[in-house]
Amino acid sequence: MKKIYTLLLLLIAGTSYAQVEGVWYLAEQPGALAVGPNIGDGSWWSNGSPDIATRACLWDDSVVFSANGDFANGMGADTWLEPWQGVAAEECGAPVAPHNDATGTWSFDGTQLTLTGMGTHIGLPKVLNGAELPNAAETGVRVYDVSFSPDGNTMTADINFGPGWWRFVYQKSGTVAGPTTYDVTFNVDMSDYTGTIGTGVYINGTFNGWCGDCNPMTDAGGGIWKVTLPLDPGTIQYKFTVDGWTDSEQFSGGESCTVTDGGFTNRVLEITENTLLPVVCYASCEACPGGQGSESNVTFNVD
């Protein structure tokens, strides 16, 4: 039996390593670089389409994961530099040691990717676990939370640097960008809402920077409002709101569908696949009494 378990572990490890092996480049898409207070939340800053051209010296940097566990940064003649690296302003320039063509090793346990070697990194060299250069010493070790698109060609790496999270999205060399998001359908029952709905019902969350009226929902009738959004895999926080931010759901904390973070209590959802969420009552984790999705006692009689 021990040999069987060992074989299974080796097979799992081999599959995980195969996901990472290869040459990767930053994905040529908005949000390939993003930073925010929560994982997957790029509300502090994220690259737009113009940045892919203006920072082309960064987008052509490669990261190479060899099958034998070796890792290498391929920076080329120039890369994107920041003032902490000795330049007057953010600009393209010759890579600065030790963050040039650094080499080291890599390992992957199925969820976390570890790089070991002075200067080895993916994304931006300044980002460490729990800190950013130059406000800390270079450690030579970085650990990223990693997930892959359904087709395996897009790799998303998240790293916590203390006050927030950086996200780096990579595309495997020689592949066409495949699906990087999952379709999630949200349903809310406004039947018990006692206020006035003017412009409509909206969904706000970490995925859209709590923007207000960016993601309106559709009135499906019977008090039900719904919307389907393409969202990145990972954990999000969200709320249903009325007329942008005129009114919003309020929770006490401790509910089965919520999390309290930074003094705010929001709905929480982990996205791992295409998902159709059940109908919930506004400001509740359950369906409205007697509404769609609720349970009722029904008596059947037959003679």
Overall average pLDDT: 89
The helix/strand order is HEEEHHEEEEEEEEEEEEEEEEEEEEE
Query: What CATH first level of the largest domain would be assigned?
Result: Mainly Beta
- The fraction of residues in strands falls at 35-45%
Shape: elongated
- Tally of individual helices: 3
Number of strands: 24
In the predicted model, the low-confidence regions spanning at least 5 consecutive residues are 4-14, 294-298
Derived structural class:
mainly beta
Q: Which assembly state applies to the chains in this document?
A: single chain
Distance between the termini: 59 Å
Largest sheet: 8 strands, antiparallel, barrel
Could you walk me through the main structural features you see in this protein, from its secondary elements to its overall organization?
The protein has 303 residues and is mainly beta. The protein has 2 domains: 23-172, Lipocalin; 182-281, Immunoglobulin-like, CATH 2.60.40. 10% of the residues lie in helices and 38% in strands. The chain contains 3 helices and 24 strands. The chain has helices at 2-20, 49-54, 56-59; strands at 22-26, 33-36, 45-46, 62-65, 70-74, 79-81, 91-93, 103-108, 112-116, 127-128, 131-132, 141-148, 154-160, 165-172, 182-189, 201-205, 218-221, 224-231, 234-242, 247-248, 258-261, 264-271, 275-276, 280-281. An 8-stranded antiparallel barrel has the order 1-4-5-8-9-12-13-14. Strands 15, 17, 18, 23 and 24 form a 5-stranded mixed sheet that branches. Strands 16, 19, 20, 21 and 22 form a 5-stranded antiparallel sheet that branches. The termini are far apart.
